[in-house]
Amino acid sequence: MSPIFEPKEAFTDQFITECQSLLGKSFQDCTNDEYYQVLANMVATISRERGIASKERSRKLQKKKVYYFSLEFLIGPLLDNYLINFGVRDTVADGLKDLGISLDTVEEQECDPGLGNGGLGRLAACFLDSMAHEDIDGYGNGMRYRYGLFHQAIVNGCQVEQTDNWLAKGFPWETRRDSSAVEVVFGGEVVRHEDNNGAYWFSVENGERVRAVPYDVPIVGFGGTKINHLRLWSAEPVEENFDLDAFNAGDYAKANKFRSDVEAISTILYPNDAGEHGRLLRLKQEYLFVSAGLQTIIHSYKKDYGCDWEHFADRVAIHTNDTHPAMCGPELMRLLVDVERLDWDTAWDITTHCISFTNHTVMPEALETWPITTFRTLLPRIYMFIDEINRRFIESLPKDNNWHDIASQTAVLWDGRVRMANLSIVCGHSINGVSAIHTGILKREVFKGFCALTPQKFNNKTNGISHRRFLCEANPALSRVISDVIGNEWLDDAAKLSDLEQYADDSSLHEQLYAARHENKVRLADYIARTTGVVLDPHSVFDVQVKRFHAYKRQLLNVFKILDLYNHILADPSYKPLPTSFIFSGKAAQSYTFAKEVIRLINSLADVINNDPRANEYIRIAFVPNFAISNAQLIYPAADISEQISTAGMEGSGTSNMKLMFNGAITLGTYDGANIEIADLVGVDNIKIFGMHVEDIARLQSEGYMVWDEYHNQHERLGRCIDQLTDGTLARLNGNFESVRDELMINNDQWYVCKDFCAYTDAFQQLRSSIDEVHTWAKMSLLNTARSGYFSSDRTIRDYAEEIWNI
Ligand code: Z57
């Protein structure tokens, strides 16, 4: 394969020419935004060209194809990612520099596509990167939302949501493929047909037809030869039904209604992370991308292998990310039975061998169910398949004493509702959780009935993250130090990071690590000063909690810790703690009142503390607005302490814990999600675990928890903090926090904030004093990075490939 952008002069010549041909401008006259357009266009062209050879190669090798169905792909900015994976980042940076252009500035022009909410969506994006790296033919299948996750502004301490018009300036990485558009049908009536031999089949008549148009984004594997793609679907009207009469009568809304009703399907990403959706439009989104994706799979299979259905399941794996694509089962059945005319048993055998499913949370409100009446009206034929799948499944249950108990747990249709998780399990051959503890809870509790029936379907796949994005790309300073010591093979194989272990006591390396961290803190402090006006001291300890806002993630516990410190500083002028900056970032779902109040609480506390000269030498708080992939990449590398303080048993895995660990931050966390596996790997000396374990919580629940006991027993400190929620101390921005107090004291502290308060504040003090000394800190930090390799999504994907997808 011919090298890209070599030599450097060839790149600069081409760049100048492209400015002229793409924009009709000489390069000296272009803006940074135009430089971005030109460079992105050059890189996108190479990706498309290289995609041909990559596709040809997989066709020859007849590789198994994996389709990863997800309603969310939080891909973030892509330019730097492409440059790194093509191995041309340095050449391009040097070449642009020769032209007087800064690559960093050019990259800042890129938009940050927010086609996901949080962990689940980012996991899907990391998996695409790793599938390409592992030379797997792995394709993403998702939705091309016209508007991504809202942009978060902070006004008077409160979150204000603004539209994310990410496509405003066009998206250079996508290719619209009209020739691959398909039709998806909603509603209508099911009609039975019969031929002369008594054979019968069904079709849907008079439904609403929608055109699904795919946009492909190339996914380039590290090394630049393997090119997969992410296919995102957009909903469009099948034909132009423009109402000229309405238009002439001046009713433009009516004239365009045909268009807006259909386009609504791909207009917006639902902004709830691990919570309720429950709207009809959401169900339409789910069916649209499932049906369009499966039609494409069958079409491309028939092109390669004709109607060789017998081997379909050996050549195709369909992975469903959470229950959002749960209709893959019945829709694949419909395509095989109604369209391809296979018999039920053959189709069922294929379906159950292709499909696999990941669950990401045990929270009951995230377990999707739909009312049968809604479902049947919108998707009458799919409902018939679900009904039959359910009937046969119930029929197959052992008829013993447990029958009723097992049936009530595992039935797909129950209590007038379609249970999407049960549908996903019944239609697939594998269900996995995302960390060891989470998978255990699925087996023992959430899906106990299924586990009794088919234990072999259950398995764990501990999450991972792309270390190329979150270490190499996000943290060039640390990456340089690492590569100077152990070479750069870790980019390809994260396990190689363990070579750092032998330098754990090397004091000159300690100095370099400190310098790299300091550089990153300065970079972040600059960004925070620019975006919020808050000035942080880069010499202070950076304590970071960045993630979605949710009660179970307990940002409130962190607030109490800081408020308690503040109280201590005011009460005792001789107390001079190690200067610490507390950094928060994250979004709350628009409708999640409690979570939004916690955001306002953080901003109010920040306003109080940052402006109090008695305290602001020692502690400061910054809330970074609009947490997204781009600013996340500035935050992780600057963190000393990684806050992972969810109520034990509640966090599926967590992935910011891994992103921070790769960057050498030390975890202050509960025994929950992947924190447990982090603790196993780094050992007790290099992590701080505190608080109740799942078993403790279970015991407490059976004994009966009383939040007022905590309030009284810890009155001096905790009780004080609780009182301060409503006594005016924090009422600077829009008043007191009665609802937060009520959540604790009236709703009996569902997430055990008060119970863990004491253990948490102690753990924080211990951790902070142990990292006070540079060499102790550097050794711990280094060992965290050295032992993080396991959490590369490359490893996770190899596990999926071997144990689920059978590759
Ligand atoms: C989401 O981001 C997660 C779970 C969900 O059910 C939905 Br919906 C969205 C998160 C979990 O909360 C995290 O613990 C986990 O690390 C992440 O998914 C990726 O598995």
From TrEMBL:
GO terms for cellular component: cytoplasm. Its cofactor is pyridoxal 5'-phosphate. It catalyses: [(1->4)-alpha-D-glucosyl](n) + phosphate = [(1->4)-alpha-D-glucosyl](n-1) + alpha-D-glucose 1-phosphate. SUPFAM superfamilies: UDP-Glycosyltransferase/glycogen phosphorylase (SSF53756). InterPro entries: Glycg_phsphrylas, Glyco_trans_35. Pfam families: Phosphorylase (PF00343). Keywords: Carbohydrate metabolism, Glycosyltransferase, Pyridoxal phosphate, Transferase. GO terms for biological process: glycogen catabolic process. GO terms for molecular function: glycogen phosphorylase activity; pyridoxal phosphate binding. Its EC number is 2.4.1.1. The modification N6-(pyridoxal phosphate)lysine is found at residue 659. It is an enzyme of class 2 (transferase). The keyword ATP-binding does not apply. NCBIfam families: P_ylase (TIGR02093). Allosteric enzyme that catalyzes the rate-limiting step in glycogen catabolism, the phosphorolytic cleavage of glycogen to produce glucose-1-phosphate, and plays a central role in maintaining cellular and organismal glucose homeostasis. Belongs to the glycogen phosphorylase family. PANTHER family: GLYCOGEN PHOSPHORYLASE (PTHR11468), GLYCOGEN PHOSPHORYLASE, LIVER FORM (PTHR11468:SF3). This is Alpha-1,4 glucan phosphorylase. It comes from Atopobium minutum 10063974.
